[in-house]
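Reading a protein record of the kind used here takes little practice once its layout is understood. Each number in the token line that follows is a code from a learned vocabulary of backbone shapes. One such record is shown here in full, so that the layout can be seen directly:
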Amino acid sequence: MLKKMRGFTLIELLIVVAIIGILAALLIPNALEAIQKAKQKSAMKEITTIATACADYMTDHGDFTALPWNGAIQANSTLTQAISSFYIKVMPVNDPWNNPYNAYLGESAVEGLWGALADEIGEDDFAIESFGRDGSAGPTYQASSYSTDSPEAGRYNVSKMSDFNEDLVNWNGNWVVGPPWCSSPGADPGPDITWVILRGRRVRRPFFLAPPAAPGSPRLRSAFSRGGGRPFRPREREETGNQWEPPDFSAA
């Protein structure tokens, strides 16, 4: 005699479907956010790589007079040909969201990006930018958000998916628009690590956001920054042997 096979009841199936739905509602948003955060960190790493290569080029040539650039990085362009192979093995062209990185090399290109005074920009300045997930400027934080009078104005917290649409901007090797932790995850508001070139080798030096003093006073102080928060250009940095002598900010 064949045994009677018992299947699942409708109530049991509904319970299983409900449990799967609850788990999906909890896990999928976190998984999507983790994917976007990984893309954002990857973009910041590639921007830092491009900025380091541009700093190397500027150190060798003095400025970007022979390599003016203003806009999207393109494959096989004069920019990629000048930077690739010698200063960087492979020049990143598109960010992890498949949108082109933007490069601004030289005085005229960098001058129109944000509220920096014209006499603070020179032919040896450069900026590298990603428009983020949406591929367009902003919507809230972009290059124009940064100001030498308020250097922390370009920092934003990443707490929801729409925050990945915000821009990432690196000026002269220093982050001026991006998450508060930038290249130092978890360090908010702590040191913001950036690579610089010293006698042909890479060393890391931190930015520190000190507690605010009087309202409206700039808070950014670092071994590379003037009192107003403008990053030093590489040729302005002083060195003695292999030792850095950071400016004295005790009177600032």
